[in-house]
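Case study B.
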Amino acid sequence: MKNLLVAQSGGPTSAINATLCGVIEKGLINTNIEKIYGARNGILGILSEKLIELKPTLFNPEALQLLCQTPSSALGSCRMKLSDWKDSSLEYEKIISVLKKYNIGYFVYIGGNDSMDTVEKISSYCKAKNINDIKIIGAPKTIDNDLPQTDHCPGFGSAAKYIATTFAEIACDCRVYARPSVTIVEVMGRDTGWLTAASALARCNGHTAPDLIYLSEVPFDIEQFLEDVQAKLSEKMAIVIAISEGLKNEEGYYIADAMQSKQTDDFGHKILAGTGRFLEEIVRHEIGCKVRSIELNVMQRCASHIASASDIYEARLLGNAAADRAINGFSGEMACIKRISNTPYQIEITFSPIGEIANHVKFVPREWISEEGNDITQELMNYILPLVQGEFPVTYCNGVPVHFKLI
Amino acid sequence: MKNLLVAQSGGPTSAINATLCGVIEKGLINTNIEKIYGARNGILGILSEKLIELKPTLFNPEALQLLCQTPSSALGSCRMKLSDWKDSSLEYEKIISVLKKYNIGYFVYIGGNDSMDTVEKISSYCKAKNINDIKIIGAPKTIDNDLPQTDHCPGFGSAAKYIATTFAEIACDCRVYARPSVTIVEVMGRDTGWLTAASALARCNGHTAPDLIYLSEVPFDIEQFLEDVQAKLSEKMAIVIAISEGLKNEEGYYIADAMQSKQTDDFGHKILAGTGRFLEEIVRHEIGCKVRSIELNVMQRCASHIASASDIYEARLLGNAAADRAINGFSGEMACIKRISNTPYQIEITFSPIGEIANHVKFVPREWISEEGNDITQELMNYILPLVQGEFPVTYCNGVPVHFKLI
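Model:
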C-alpha cells in the first residue's frame, strides 16, 4: 500500500480545484491507495513538510462538489522553480526524504509551465538516482492556455467564458449614449493572446463587439492602431477593443514600458500603467473622443460563478487520469487533451513526456489571426467555442456562491 | 385612447430593462392604451422625435424575458439636465408638442437623480401651464442606491450581488501564496458607500474578507489607513480591502486628486489614477509588501449574468406600478419601495412627490458604519442581504448569455 500526494502551483484558475477533485476521487476509489496527502503551497509544502491528509475532509460528495465550484488553489500555491539538481541536489534530497517518510508512491503536480518544469526535474532526478518507487505525473492548469502538447488547458475555458460574457455585457453598457466612444478592455496574457481571442465569442449572439482585437503575438504599431480606431469610429458610435496585456512593439518591448520609461510618480517610482490605460491616454490625446479602459484583472481567473461546465468536467477528468497514470507506474509525463473532432466536440486523454512541455510555450498560430493583425479568424472562434459550453451549477447561500475551505 | 411613452436615462444597470419590461407589460394589458412608444436616449429622443413603437417587437414573452436579462438601457440613455423652464421654456414647448403629436397621455421616465429632476421639471411645467392630459411618473434606477424616499433602488441589488460574489472569489484568489499581500478593490460610488458596503456580504459564507472597508461617507485619513493595514497584516497573511472610488479627505477633496495635483504624463495631462491605484502606490511605498489594486469598473453595473432575482423582480414591479400610477391620473411622483419587514423580507410599493427626491442624496447613515470608520455594522449587512437573494435565470447560447437588442 502506497500513499498518493497532490499539490497545486502557479496562478489561480477557476478549474484547478476540479483537477484536485479528480485526483482525490481516483485516490478514494483505488484500493491500493491508503492515504491521500495534499501539500500546502505546492513544492514549498513538501520542502517544509506541510502535508495534510485529505480523506477526512474530502471523503464527502458535498465537499467535493463545493471544491469544484471554488476558484483558486484550495491547497495554496507557490511560484518556485527548483534549481538544476546537477548544480545543487539539496532540495531534491529533502523532497525525496519527505516523500519516503510519508510513503508517497504517486505524486500529481497540478500547474502551468513552471510546475511542469518541477515535474521534469524531480522525475529526471529520480531516474538518475534509480528511485523507482515514486511516480510523478503533471496535470495541466493555466488560464493562459499556453502549454504545448495538450489541445487546451483546464482553466482556459472558464476564463474564456467569463471574458466572452463580460465583453457582451460591456458591449451593452457602452452603446447607450448618442456620442462617439472608445472602450479598451485589457485581457491577461503576457506572451500569448488566447484569452484575448476569447473576447470574439461575444459576437456569437449578435453583438458586433469587440470591434478590434489585438493579440500579444503580433507586433503592435500605435499609428496603425489609431488608424484602425478612426476607421471603426467612422462606421459606428461606440467601439469596443480587446487587447492583450502583453502587447509589444516591433522591437519586442512592451508598448507601455517603451513609451513611459521617463515617467515617475511623486515617490520617484516608475508608474506601471497597464497597456490598456496607456492606450486610453493615447486615444484621448490623438482622437479626443470619450475613452475608457477596463482591466479584467484577477476576475478572469477566479470568476468561478460563471465557470464553463465543459472546462470543469475536463479539469476533473485530467486530475483523475493523471493519478491513474501514476498508479499504473508511469512517471515524468503530463496528462493532455487531444481533440478528436470539433463537431461534435470529442476529446480523449493522452500523455506526453514532460520534457516536451516544460519551458515550451504554445502561441496562437499566425494564420488564426487576421492578416491586418486586428482581429481573429473563424477557425480560432471554432477552436474556443466548445471550451465555454455549459454553465457549471453553483450552490449559493445568502445570495453569494459557497466556497470550500480546507481547515 | 391614449398612448404610453417610456424612456431610460442615466448610467446603465443590470435591472433598468426589467423596469422597462414592467412598464411595457402594463401598457400591453391595459385596454385604454393604444400604442407604447419608447424614446431613444431618454429626453433627447423626445426632443429629437426619435420615438419607436414597442408593441411590434415586445408583444412576445420570449423577447420580454430576454429584455430582463439584458444589462444597460435597451432604449439608449442620456445625461441631460433641462434648464429651468422659467429661464427658458423652448425645450419644454418642444417636449410638450412632441408628446401631443404622438398622443402621449402617460410618460414613465426610468432613471436616477438627474432623471427625477427632469420628471420634476416637466411635471411642474405642465402644472403651471394647465396641461392636465399628460401624466409623468418616475421609476427609480441606480446602482448607487442614493435616491431618497425609496428603501432602495433597482439595480443596486444586482450590483451588490456581483460585488459580494467577486469579493468572495478575490478572497480565494489572493490567499494562495505564503507571503504577505494587500489587495485593494475599488468599488463605484463617488458620494455614497452603499455599493462598497455590499462587499461585506462575502463574509456570509465563511470568508473573512474584506478585512477593511472604507466608505465615501467617512473622511479618509491616510495615516490611519496605513495603521489599519499594518494591524491586519500582523494578524493574517493576505488582506483584502474594499474602498469607495469617492474617498475624500477631511477637507472634502478626493484623496487621489489632493495628492496628485502636480503629477502629469508625457503629454502634459494630469494622470487620473483612481483611488485604488493611488492607495496601492502608498501601500507599496510605506509598507513594502506585495500589493495589487483592482477596479470593478463597469462590470459592477452590467454583469447581468449574475443579477439578483429579487432585484429584477422588484425592478419589473416598479415599472409596472409607475405606468399604472400614471394611467390612474397621478403625475409628478416617483414609484418607491417601502420595506415592511426584514425577516421575512416584505415590501410594498408607494409613491412620493418628485420634489422630495430630485436633487437629494441618501447617504449611508453614520451609525451603520463602524466607529473606527473602517468597517460596516451588522445592521447594514441586514439591510443589503435581502436585496441580493436569488439568481435570475439566464438564457445562454454558444456558452454566452443572450441579450435583447432593439432593431
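Chain B touches chain A through 72 residues (CB under 8 Å). The remaining cases will be described in the next quarterly update.
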